[in-house]
Amino acid sequence: MPRIAVFFLGGTISMAGHDGGAVVRHSGAELIQAVPQLGALDATLDIHDFRRLPGACLSFDDILELATAAEGCDADGVVVVQGTDTIEETSYLLDLVWRLDTPLVLTGAMRNPTLAGADGPANLLAAVQVAASTVLRGLGAVVVVNDEVHAACHVRKTHSTNPAAFTSPNAGPLAHLVEGVPVLVGMPAPRFTVARPGTPLGIKVALVTITLDDDGGLLTDVGSRYDGLVLAGFGVGHVPARMVPAIGALAEQIPVVLASRIGAGPVLSSTYGFAGSESDLLARGVIGAGLLDPYKARVLLRLLLAGGAERQAIAVAFAEAGGVASR
Q1: Continuous segment of H or E residues that includes residue 251
Q2: Which has the closest alpha carbon to 205: 189, 229, 188?
Q3: Average pLDDT rounded to a whole number, residues 135-139
Q4: Strand 256-260 and strand 287-288: pairing?
Q5: Model pLDDT for residues 177-225, shown as the tens digit of each residue
Q6: Where are the beta strands (DSSP E) in 39-187?
Q7: I need a surface site. Which of 28, 59, 297, 326 has the fewest CB within 10 A?
Q8: Is-above-0.85 flag for pTM?
Q9: Which residues are paired to 21 by β-bridges?
Q10: Are strands 23-24 and 44-53 parallel, antiparallel or unpaired?
Q11: Closest CA to 48 of 9, 3, 7, 105
């Protein structure tokens, strides 16, 4: 009988009504008891009330501490239950530092338990079923919602309220739950991991989204206030021409990573050649993020900088993690 460690961090799945709106209230035991089907599974559940926070209030330190706790619990599978606001980032952070073959499954809910059609119980059941299976061993962190399994490196939250909010634009689901059993339907992404920082993160990485007629004002003093910068550029990695000098100067001070604000598709390297194009920016020392979206690029850059990586090592890491190393 597999032993599954279930870590509860809070989030919508744990919330209940309040005069001023829903707040985190329910314990892990209460949520488990609300899903009778969990008691019928051939698995032993170890419940850990690790945090009681909205997803928006979680930090890098919370998630890295969770990774250490999860690795030390001697379980056959791990489930992390949290708010969906940040799950596309926390899942990728965990995926980057998770070195075990043990399945690591994240889930949450879009509707709190007081609302009609609350999705938390079904997602919790599905997450435990996936964690108890051997199908996902060695594939790193995954997100399980709406009976779909998504690789952490691809998953995106694409709707603010819909229970079917999570998709993997560049890959599609990794697996589906069929009568409680995960069935692989997609190609697992190659694993990419980094060393876990040994001390709390003091590294700051800015994320700036480029917009129409952008004057670059948000880049002022970034080099003196942040250790790294992620630019979410237009399309395949473009910015207004008038921003190029400032971006080039920043790339000489700190690592600057170029991602696409689109959320699907890659940053290119050599298709366009105008001032502010991807090839122009890369020639000025900017690092391409490949298929990584801006949010995941920021997670990776912060971990790399916390580990002391220099620019060349960062560029190599993004080439591999972004899926463009073999080009």
Answers
A1: helix 244-253
A2: 229
A3: 94
A4: parallel
A5: 999 999 999 988 889 999 998 777 899 999 999 999 999 999 999 999 9
A6: 44-53, 77-81, 104-107, 141-145, 148-151, 156-157, 166-167, 175-178, 181-184
A7: 326
A8: yes
A9: none
A10: unpaired
A11: 7
> Any idea how long the chain is?
327
Residues 257-309: tens digit of each pLDDT:
999 999 999 999 999 999 999 999 999 999 999 999 999 999 999 999 999 99
Which fold would CATH assign to domain 205-321? Rossmann fold (3.40.50)
Residue 108, number of CB atoms within 10 A of its CB: 30
91 contacts 64 by C-beta, under 8 angstroms: no
Longest dimension (CA), the chain: 63
Beta partners for 10? 53
The distance of Cα 260 from the centroid of its chain, to the nearest Å, equals 16
Q: Which two tokens stand for residue 43?
A: 């698995």
Q: Are 195 and 99 in contact (CB under 8 A)?
A: no
CA distance 202 to 218: 22
Q: Tell me, what's the pLDDT at 61?
A: 94
> Strand, helix or coil at 275?
coil
Catalytic residues: 12
Q: How many CB atoms lie within 10 A of CB 216?
A: 16
What class has domain 3-184? alpha beta
Q: Where are the domains of the chain?
A: 3-184, 205-321
Report how far residue 176's alpha carbon sits from residue 45's, in angstroms, rounded to the nearest whole number: 22
Which amino acid is it at 24?
Answer: V
CA atoms of 101 and 121, how far apart (whole Å): 26
Each residue's pLDDT tens digit, 5-64: 999 999 998 888 766 787 887 888 888 998 989 988 989 999 999 999 999 999 999 999
